[in-house]
Amino acid sequence: MNKFKAFLKRKDIEFTAKRYGIDALGAMAQGLFASLLVGTILSTLGSQFNIAIFNELGDFAKAVAGPAMAVAIGYALKAPPLVLFSLVAVGWASNSLGGAGGPLAVLLITIVAAELGKAVSKETKIDILVTPLTVIISGGLLAHFCAPAIGVASSYVGNIIMWATEQQPFVMGIIVSVIVGIALTLPISSAAICAALSLTGLAGGAAVAGCCAQMVGFAVMSFKENRWGGLVAQGIGTSMLQMGNIVKNPKIWIAPTLASAITGPIATCIFKMEMNGAAISSGMGTCGFVGQIGIYTGWLNDIASGAKEAITAFDWAGLILVCFVLPAVLTWLISLPLRKIGWIKENDLKLDL
């Protein structure tokens, strides 16, 4: 047993929740962002402004989502070069065969293939053959036999959440908004979770609302301490910057979380705000305005399919209120009594920017 532990340590193989649930999942979201999401944005710009080259570039970027995710995961797992390069094929196979649950299939299968590749890396004199073969064969076989089932299971869970949101938009609006918003602020990836579950529709709209409540809420609530730099860093960057302060004083999390519990059902029940763009956008909030671009892209898709006649003023009002105005106002108002009773003290929200 001691020899095995020493071997794992030498190979930098760690069977921990942090390595797989935080590092790998977060990296997967970055890979997905750098391919599918950027590709979607380029395609949207190309369609709206009639720029053919943007459409072409967007298609190229979207096509390599699987390999991009796999390489990002391998990088997070500290895979050596031969393993990393071989994961391209694994990512393509897993994403293609995983269907709607492709991102989850890529995550699970890539982790296994990468760790197996790390285990055999540089252990033989013909490493140039052994390592790539190990990664591609193990990952390819897992993709062939397991990815379709992973995709079905992922879609099933996502469909249940979306169905439940349609049946109970008020209750599920609160639940989805709060959970996804919390996930965005935690050191895990809300974007990857939404992508893995293919979370779109009303549930996707509630997820956007929750993420915006956290990002805009923290940005406005901490403006006194962090000024304009903090407003930008959190408002269009990430509320995860506050995680260190939350650990010190969890009560600072109350205001944006309560705000998300309010904006979620407003999104689902009043404005019927849906995310019909890329599912990853549901978990991005105001980060680079990706959530809002995703909703806008969804509107365009609905118009093209005939599901929607046009984008209305009510649509725009809902987007602006749910994503920007209400998170700012509600979080600020809720934080006032918390500051007054001493639950939030001076500099509790201060960031080292």
The biggest sheet amounts to: none
Q: What's the number of structural domains?
A: 2
Number of helices: 15
Mean pLDDT: 92
How much strand content do the residues show? under 5%
Radius of gyration: 21 Å
Walkthrough of the structure:
This protein is mostly helical and 353 residues long. The chain has two domains: 2-154, no CATH class; 168-340, no CATH class. The chain has helices at residues 2-10, 17-49, 52-63, 65-76, 81-98, 102-120, 127-167, 169-185, 190-196, 201-221, 223-235, 243-248, 254-270, 290-305, 313-340. Helix 10 (201-221) packs antiparallel against helix 13. The longest helix is centred in the middle third of the chain and has 41 residues, at 127-167. It is globular, with a radius of gyration of 21 Å. The termini are far apart. The model has no long low-confidence stretch (mean pLDDT 92).
Give keywords.
single chain; 353 residues; mainly alpha; 2 domains; 76% helix; globular
How would you sum up this structure in a few lines?
The longest helix has about 40 residues, at about 125-165. Helix 6 packs across helix 9 (about 190-195), helix 7 (about 125-165) crosses helix 10 (about 200-220) and helix 13 (about 255-270) runs antiparallel to helix 15 (about 315-340).
